[in-house]
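Minutes, project check-in
Item: structure for the 257-residue chain
Input as provided by the requester:
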Amino acid sequence: MSSDLEMYSEGPSRQVLAEVPGRALRFLSAAGKNRQIRALLRERGYTDEEHREGWDLLHRASGFGTGEPDEVEDAEVGSAIAVLDAWDEPHFRLIRAALQRRHPAQEKFVFDNLTAQVGPAAVVSVKTLLDRLDALEKSPARKATRKDDHAALETLAKRGITKEERSRLRQLVDVASGAGTADEDEEAIGDAATVRAVVDSEEHVNALRAMHAWYREWAETARAVIKRRDFLVRLGLAHRKAKAKVKPTPAAPPDVV
């Protein structure tokens, strides 16, 4: 019987790689929302840095699915996810409309393989958007188009996507990731923004392999140290037990007159 984390001599199969972002998203969401799960993992080295690395790897892989835990136990994390989930669809539409006619090259860069998502996946989609807007502002890789990039940001500021709004959203992303706020290195932001998933490209496969390696380590760790089945279900590492079907009571025979 094959494992969820099946490995071949040359590495994980493409099917495993294709599925791992969705599984990692569920794992990260549960670890961020449920403090009891996080505490159990922390005893085995699952630090805030490890948690942030998982989100960063998921962001780089960016071919994620949308597995969503059943309940939210950390109110602050759940609230941040809800705000981002409600924000991304209408504002992605607004931003795209503003850029398509006036700044088509910037629209293509910002929305390459990027769409609004649902539930915890919205955290990744909004983070991708913010990273790319930051790249328009200051990425060394986009020095040649800086003037046009800044003009695009000025257009967005008139639509309400100001620096202050981007900062507010960045704080929500940090909270929703379950890692608290953290200062980000400017060059790292620019570099991350230029990593865009292209299906079946070498860069994408390498990003998926890195995501798989992270997930494999912590999924196996969780299976080893967490004994509560409901916690494993939330992490996506177990399935709910099917309820036993109740056999119908046979009808009583009619009274004989």
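Outcome recorded: Residues 26 and 236 are 6 Å apart (CA to CA).
No further action items on this chain.
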